[in-house]
Amino acid sequence: MAVYTEVSDDDLEEFAAEYDIGEVVSCKGIAEGVENTNYLLQTDRGNYILTLYEKRVNPDELPFFLGLMEHLAARGLACPTPIKGRDGTALRTLCGRPAAIVSFLKGMWTRRITLNHCAELGPAMAAMHLAGADFPMTRNNNLSVSGWRPLFESIRPRAAEIKADLEQTIADELDYLEAHWPKALPVGLIHADLFPDNVFFLHDRAAGVDRMSGFIDFYFACTDALAYDIAICLNAWCFEDDGAFNATKARLMLNGYRKVRPLSADELLALPLLARGAAMRFLLTRSYDWLNTPPGAMVKRKDPMEYYRKLRFHQGVGGPGQYGIA
Amino acid sequence: MAVYTEVSDDDLEEFAAEYDIGEVVSCKGIAEGVENTNYLLQTDRGNYILTLYEKRVNPDELPFFLGLMEHLAARGLACPTPIKGRDGTALRTLCGRPAAIVSFLKGMWTRRITLNHCAELGPAMAAMHLAGADFPMTRNNNLSVSGWRPLFESIRPRAAEIKADLEQTIADELDYLEAHWPKALPVGLIHADLFPDNVFFLHDRAAGVDRMSGFIDFYFACTDALAYDIAICLNAWCFEDDGAFNATKARLMLNGYRKVRPLSADELLALPLLARGAAMRFLLTRSYDWLNTPPGAMVKRKDPMEYYRKLRFHQGVGGPGQYGIA
Prior knowledge:
Mean pLDDT of chain A: 94
Strand order of the largest sheet of chain A: 1-2-3-5-4
Low-confidence stretches of chain A: none
Distance between the termini of chain A: 41 Å
Number of domains of chain A: 2
Radius of gyration of chain A: 20 Å
Structural class of chain A: alpha+beta
Shape of chain A: globular
Largest sheet of chain A: 5 strands, antiparallel
CATH class of the largest domain in chain A: Alpha Beta
Number of strands of chain A: 10
Oligomer: homodimer
Helix content of chain A: 25-40%
Order of helices and strands of chain A: HEEEHEEEHHHEEEEHHHH
């Protein structure tokens, strides 16, 4: 929630002149996005998002992320499209940082997840998986099973500051996940961070419902089991604030997904394990951030214990039926 | 530089329904404004700013600020105009805070002040003073001479943390300002915070210059000597980063002002004293914020010493001629 890099009007003028987007009439820093600096850029032709990539993004990976957004948008998926400059490139430098302009996506992320939102999310996620099938680039998911142990070792000495049994819980679970992690599921392009703040909706007043208007923030996207994206969403969308799992939300999301891209028997069976892995991934990164972010910092820390409890839930799940599906 | 209050999509939907502004299609928190929470609100009809007033604003004073913006806009001054709801009122409540929607003002504030900007600022400031002349409400300037001593007393015990001689410098200067502060200058509506981030410009590519597009942030506006607004701008616009006073900038600003609203001989003679007072006001408030803001806080602290040096400069000014004018 911050602007890390302030862009002067002079620098902006020069940068925008590389594009055929009209005259800049406004440029305001957006208080969203914990990784990068985002500006809402308005010209006399329309709205755009200007992103400066900060240190947590590897510049070498930007062609993958921007290429993916362009690919998905070209296939009709609602997502930001990189705008190319007059020289044909979308990625350039601003204030010493890699920077790009992407199209503006209407909509707002929901702060209160309803059944409506879960029903919309499922088919849109499946459509994204289908649209990504022929994307030619690949990117390893460095926050999947092989990346968890090093993350664990880095937080291990201070894990007890979060919860007394956190170290033992993670150690046991990691052993299990490493031994049982599925290797033969259908693989493709996944978003890998489809939390509510990355999914936009627009209210359809006539119908009285919210309609999904697009996905944003593809900077964790990678090549991995497609069902792992679903597992991340089971965690991010189907628990209530009090920690209760809402099987109706899960059912609507999963059945909506399956109408667009059917899930194989193996994928369905793997869901509880994938959901444990997804819970582990966010338990580890949130624990890391919790221990390494000063309390007064500009970035609000997210509670790792939320994912400890979700992990515990999935550990007790006997089969995909408990996610509300037949 | 922060969003203090997060507005949920449900709350926003309900709030926006009180207005005749169309359907909300986007609402993004803006990383500007240290006092209030601002959202850039987009509907299918246009752009607006949604402001939630946080604790540093006295709710009782909001009718003055909103009334003033409405008054100035009605007289053709470029500034945000409060949008009234279907019930005819502009001020209502959102997330437990006073809140208002105002019109969106195109333009960007300049990070690099040029002669061009100073020449634009002068006449626009004078036009604002003229437009405010028949505004019926008044508001005491509680950050003028009578407010400085209480502020000083509150920072006095820790002033040495900023600079060894700060306490003595302020004590001596306060005695002088209280004894000599002018009481008979033309009084009217002043902005009282016309720093570069509150003045918007648009680039006129054909002419190769920036044109002023409007003033924002009237939440320090009050009734005081009109020339005091000019004195604030002498400090905020006419010093270089290295501390040097740029008399050419001052001359362009002052002469631009005088073409729209002539300055009396008394006002011209009082400028050096008013500039000392303006420097004192920001030296005191910045010192207060410096001593009372934790270093890691979301608000970036502004260096009080910048205004210590500006105060020292004006103490050495013999007459208005040193501001570049005849």
